[in-house]
Amino acid sequence: MICPQCRSAHCFRSHRRGLFDGAVTAIGLRPWRCRTCDYRFYAWRVAVAFARYAHCPTCGNFDLHRIGHDRVDNGTLLALKRTVGFPAYRCDPCREKFYSVRPFHRIIPSVIPETGAKSPHS
Ligand SMILES: [Zn+2]
Ligand SMILES: [Zn+2]
User: Fold this and answer.
1) Ligand 1 center to 121 CA (angstroms)
2) Reported pTM
3) Which residues, in sequence order, are bridge partners of residue 96?
4) Would you call 118 helix, strand, or coil by DSSP?
5) Residue 24 buriedness (CB in 10 A; 0-12 / 13-18 / 19+)
6) Predicted confidence (pLDDT) per residue in 28-83, tens digit
7) Which ligand is nearest to the Cα of residue 55, counting in written order?
8) Mean pLDDT of the chain
9) Ligand closest to CA 5
10) What are the φ/ψ torsions at residue 21 (nearest 5 degrees)?
11) How many alpha carbons lie under 13 Å from residue 79 in its C-beta half-sphere?
């Protein structure tokens, strides 16, 4: 999970809190919190803020490779998507091939040093 505010990958599932969290859970969202900047956000496979970009449906990876649209061999409405020529992508870590009409935007977790920044003796 990538934090939509600082793009750190140090995020963890947050506890549900109150009615709003109950409501968003009903549409599949889960509350998360970023360990780096303490930002609280909601996410499906990826954070809501990033969900409009093409991402792997299995692992939420945005670092995708564009492939030929005839190379996807499973999924829903396959024949239709092939015929229409939907953009096809491949996710390297899980070898998932899929179609996505969402715009491609490569989002990579920022590497933030875990120590040093908060030291009072610098
Ligand atoms: Zn953050
Ligand atoms: Zn993947």
Assistant:
1) 24
2) 0.82
3) 91
4) coil
5) middle
6) 999 999 999 999 999 999 999 999 999 999 999 999 999 998 899 888 899 999 99
7) 2
8) 90
9) 1
10) -60, -35
11) 0
